[in-house]
Each structure stands twice: as C-alpha cells, then as structure tokens.
Amino acid sequence: MSRARTCFGVWILGALGLGGCGDSGSSDAAGGSGANVGDGGSNGPGFMVGGGGEGANNNQGGNCLPNLVGTVRDAHPGGTAHTTGPAEFDQWYRDVADVNQAISFTITPVIDDTGLLTYDNMAFFPIDGQGFGDQGNEHNFHFTFELHMEFAYQGGEVFTFTGDDDLWVFINDRLAIDLGGLHPSQSETIDLDARAAELGIVPGTSYPLDLFHAERHTNASNFRVQTSLSFTNCDPIIY
Fold first, then answer.
1. Which residue in 3, 17, 118, 210 has a CA-CA distance of 20 to 30 Å to 9?
2. Are 210 and 71 in contact (CB under 8 A)?
3. Spans of all domains in the chain
C-alpha cells in the first residue's frame, strides 16, 4: 500500500484535531475535509498509467496509451449537508459495503508535441446512472476519485489542478496540494523545482504522485489536470 494513503489518513485526522503527519508539509484543510485511508478494509481496483502519444517528449513508457485509470467510489451522502466527521471520512477511499461502490474509471488526457499532458472536463460526472444512482439529481454528484501515478523527475516540471470540491495531491508521500473543503472551482500549481527540498525530490529519480478527489456538492463538478511530468509506469499499481 502506498505510504501516501496511510500518511493522508494520519494528516487529515490531524486537521480534525485528532493526530498529524510529521512530514506532510500540510496546510489546514478548508472546511475540515478529508479521509482516513490507512491500512485495513478492502481496497478498490488498481490502475495503470500509460505513455506519451506520437511525437510527445513525455517519455511515458514506450508504447503505452496515455490513459490514467483510477477508482471512483459512489457514496451515499453522510453526516450533515456539508461536512462529516472522522468515521465518514474513513470510508471515502476504501470499499465499505452498503456505503460506497467502487467503479473503475479511465481518464484519457491529451499530450501535445512538447509533452504537456492535459485533461480538462468542465462537467466531470464519471458515474451518472451508476452505483447508487443519481438520487434525484441531474447528475450523480456524490463520489470520490483517486489516482496513483509514478513519474521521473527531470527538473523544470509543473503540475496544475483546477476543480471542485476537495482535492489533495501527495508527491513522494508529502502533501503538495491542499484544496480541501466545499468550494467553487479553484486552482493550484506545484513548481517541483521550487518545492524540491520540501518534497524531498532530486532530479534523475522516480517518485509516486497520489491524487485524492471528492465531489459532494450538487452545483457543479470540474476536473482539470495539466502537467509536464513524465509518467513512467505502465503496469497496474494495485493496493
């Protein structure tokens, strides 16, 4: 199991006043959002990361397709209308019978000739009509999504996420983006060189990148990732 999953669980409990993760470098979670994704319980399906398209400089594993396959979990809304507590957070990124349903979902980004990878979806509703259904809404709004990737750090790369609601990104098992909380579309960019010391990364080495997303408000769902990172693994990463 990725250490980021365990660290995320400890970190978010710290944000709730129940613990902490010493090397996360985290900021406070807006709205007290998050999940305990530590060991225990069954986990959802694995995923694979594919390679760069024709003409791309993004050296992503030779002949692999540029697919990012992760796990969506459809969830019954829990707690109050806007937030929950540690018991509910503990169920966000693990399979819990009668509480959530895990569904594999593939993101297919576009990779341009410079190697820049972009996935831009202003109506990110990956499981409409699936799982527990849309529950009387226009879309199925209540779900989480996680991706686990590896990349070769070469120097000069950036990673940008824009979306709503909650989003946490860990690089090298350290918190790199914290957009937790109920909010309209927000954006944050990681300049890996500028934060290399904080993240414990050096050029010429491969590192994990773990992304945890949640959609829980019935207004909109946006999901945009743009990065110059070169993802290196083509084999499934299974937890």
1. 118
2. no
3. 3-231
